[in-house]
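Module 6 notes. Inverse folding takes a fixed backbone as the condition and produces residue identities as the prediction. Think of it as a translation problem where the source language is geometry and the target language is the twenty amino acids. Below is one complete input and output pair. Work through it position by position during the lab.
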């Protein structure tokens, strides 16, 4: 399964694409979509959309994983992140891709085994799980890769549960 993880951000939107069978994970591509500071917000959203569309056309993921909620104290920041997420959802929908949403707690638990892990711990585990030489940078890309890994692990668990509940297995 090929999954595109997206960590929404108005300055940098992280992306990470992996191939996985639910046990072994291989990185395909990752990085950050940086928007130009001088552009107005609508132009930044367009840039994010265009780059995600290019990544989808190039790498042909089968699913998109995003964070389902934002925990910020600044209301304006939450609104901006919500607008970026809207662009991500629209881009995925235009490509006919299913979108799966995971809470930060689910992502951290899946990747590190601890739902309150620090960003640095997530980076280290992503590096280890993907057998990378260096920590993935920017940290937004590490978070996006963690989202993709989380999705593949959830899908593998769902397949095992479905198999176990199959009446032919009893």
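Target side of the pair, the amino acids:
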């Amino acid at each position: 399964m090929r999954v595109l993880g997206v960590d929404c951000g108005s300055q940098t939107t992280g992306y990470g694409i992996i191939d996985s069978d639910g046990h072994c994970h291989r990185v395909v591509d990752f990085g950050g979509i940086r928007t130009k500071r001088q552009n107005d917000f609508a132009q930044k959203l367009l840039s994010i959309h265009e780059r995600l569309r290019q990544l989808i056309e190039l790498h042909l993921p089968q699913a998109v994983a995003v964070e389902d909620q934002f925990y910020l104290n600044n209301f304006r920041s939450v609104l901006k992140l919500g607008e970026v997420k809207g662009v991500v959802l629209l881009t995925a929908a235009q490509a006919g891709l299913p979108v799966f949403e995971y809470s930060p707690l689910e992502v951290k638990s899946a990747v590190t085994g601890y739902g309150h892990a620090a960003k640095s711990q997530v980076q280290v585990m992503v590096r280890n799980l993907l057998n990378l030489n260096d920590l993935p940078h920017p940290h937004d890309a590490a978070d996006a890769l963690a989202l993709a890994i989380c999705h593949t692990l959830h899908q593998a668990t769902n397949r095992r549960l479905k198999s176990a509940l199959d009446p032919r297995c009893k």
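Reference fact for the lab report: The radius of gyration is 16 Å.
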